[in-house]
Amino acid sequence: MLDSKIPKGPLNSKWEDYKGHCKLVNPANKRSLEIIVVGTGLAGASAAASLGELGYKVKAFCFQDSPRRAHSIAAQGGINAAKNYQNDGDSVFRLFYDTVKGGDYRAREANVHRLAEVSGNIIDQCVAQGVPFAREYGGLLSNRSFGGTQVQRTFYAAGQTGQQLLLGAYSALERQVALGNVKMYNRHEMLDIVKIDGKARGIIARNLINGELERHFGHAVLICSGGYGNVFFLSTNAMGSNVTAAWKATRNGAYFANPCFTQIHPTCIPVSGDHQSKLTLMSESLRNDGRIWVPKKQNDTRKASDIPEEERDYYLERRYPAFGNLVPRDVASRAAKERCDAGYGVGSSKQAVYLDFAAAIERYGNIEVGKRQMNNVSKEEIIKLGKEVVAEKYGNLFDMYAKITGENPYETPMRIYPAVHYTMGGLWVDYELGTTVPGLYSLGEANFSDHGANRLGASALMQGLADGYFVIPYTVGNYLADEIRTKAIPTDHPAFVEAEKKVRDTINKFFAIKGTKSVDFFHKKLGKIMWDKCGMARNEQGLKEAIQEIKALRAEFWSNVRVPGEANEFNPELEKAGRVADFLELGELMCLDALNRRESCGGHFREESQTEDGEAKRDDENFSYVAAWEYKGEGQYELHKEPLVFEECKPTQRSYK
């Protein structure tokens, strides 16, 4: 039976009661306790900095040349917090409610409420670090709207919020490195977990520069390695993003939860051809001011500027009047796919819709005219003033679009289409962020805990920093209080020797195959299977076919992949081979999970389970649970169910109309 360790008592006092009763480690004992942090994005960097500040001996690992290169920098639009600066009705409860509802009632209430509670502290922390959040004229922090909410609670730094937050966490981390509390291992990739007497006690890491395998001991291990969206090959993730750290944890007994809950982001630059290796995200913040539309006429080949207003279908505003263009991501993505599939798509591929800023530019221009008390202003001057305001709010995003597409988004609407973006599934964790392996924790996107079946925009940064700055310092201390008598275990212990041998054998196996197909060949084939049959819409037949196709592809991979070079050198193809091998196993589990969940919820849309007007149809009676899968061997998994109990947010049919 899964023990989620949720504290008893009222929802709004659980976290406060937990903090008041958890075990503590005194400062002298912290200096003799070692913690390994795998991944140094927002969750990992904030955790390593916070734990180093507390006095623990921390080892932090990242496969990039610097923590500043973590994929967290790609988050553009903002970070949510229940500050209610706008006085528009926001509160901790409303942020909690919007998050549970946005996740289609498939998240654990206690974790989400804690996230909402600490959200305000995150903003204070980041401001103190010097994060340059946008401010109003009077100096107050500015907010904007994001999908799935009717308030303005998203704090932002132009279109580079993730980068600025990461620089804040990075500066805190580097301070601890300079003080000697954190030892940083750049260009190192974790390739296995070391367990001793059932507890996580270290990792095997490969030095990516010289290829050497290293053994590292830790009293606890934190997996903060991000999401697994690159299982689809084409995604908005950095090309290095992978599932390997989380998957090695799964192979060592940590359950993997809700793997089929992947998020398709509605606002991405459309695919341009088979040559592409990744997709580019246009921030959801653009939906705050941009209007999404398609022509009312099928297969319309006219330019956007030649289509008059009355011949445009603002389909989100038409179908969801209460939320309009700010419906949650899963709803917006499916609506775009439906319009394109019905023959209303735009662009050469017909797999795109328009995101139009013309109305916002004119609106902002008129506001500026009023502010400046200008008279007899021409339409051209109004447009010019409006463009200046839009450039201030979204300029770097517009510049990025122009560079990639060669089109000027100030003059013509952007073309967008949904793409794989975020993964709500991940390692199963309890209230303390502990996996099913004692001493092994998971933070940020690497765990499953806070977003249910669909993540609201601007909540990823919130969760990563909440876990690292404000949750794990308490919960890992509660565990380590019982470990103060455990001395550092020498890395010549048989468990370390065996784990290293297992990793070395796998590496040698790659080189022994001497096949004819590249790693990317297999990754692309896997990605196509996943996108076609476990992507924006899934059905029973397609998922069963996908499982068999992935099994066959995995067998071909292990008999015909070509990995050039040698083990003991800088070898990116070897890195990719290990990651794709793990994706091939994860992909099968994702399809198995999607097949088992015979309902539609959030980003998981089963074609057999939809309402008359094509919306997702949940089955709370049979599927109101977290699906936690235990690895039992290649292609073999046992399902464990954690029932979801809703006391404050009673599940209803999710409506944004």
UniProtKB/TrEMBL annotation:
Residues 523-656 form the Fumarate reductase/succinate dehydrogenase flavoprotein-like C-terminal domain. Its cofactor is FAD. Residues 35-461 form the FAD-dependent oxidoreductase 2 FAD-binding domain. It is found in: Cell membrane. The keyword Transport applies. It is a peripheral membrane protein. Its EC number is 1.3.5.1. It catalyses: a quinone + succinate = fumarate + a quinol. GO terms for molecular function: electron transfer activity; flavin adenine dinucleotide binding; succinate dehydrogenase (quinone) activity. InterPro entries: FAD-dep_OxRdtase_2_FAD-bd (IPR003953), FAD/NAD-bd_sf (IPR036188), Fum_R/Succ_DH_flav-like_C_sf (IPR037099), Fum_Rdtase/Succ_DH_flav-like_C (IPR015939), SdhA/FrdA/AprA (IPR030664), Succ_DH/Fum_Rdt_flav_su (IPR011280), Succ_DH/fumarate_Rdtase_cat_sf (IPR027477). GO terms for biological process: anaerobic respiration. Pfam families: FAD_binding_2, Succ_DH_flav_C. GO terms for cellular component: plasma membrane. Keywords: Cell membrane, Electron transport, FAD, Flavoprotein, Membrane, Oxidoreductase, Transport. The active site is at R329. Belongs to the FAD-dependent oxidoreductase 2 family. FRD/SDH subfamily. This is succinate dehydrogenase.
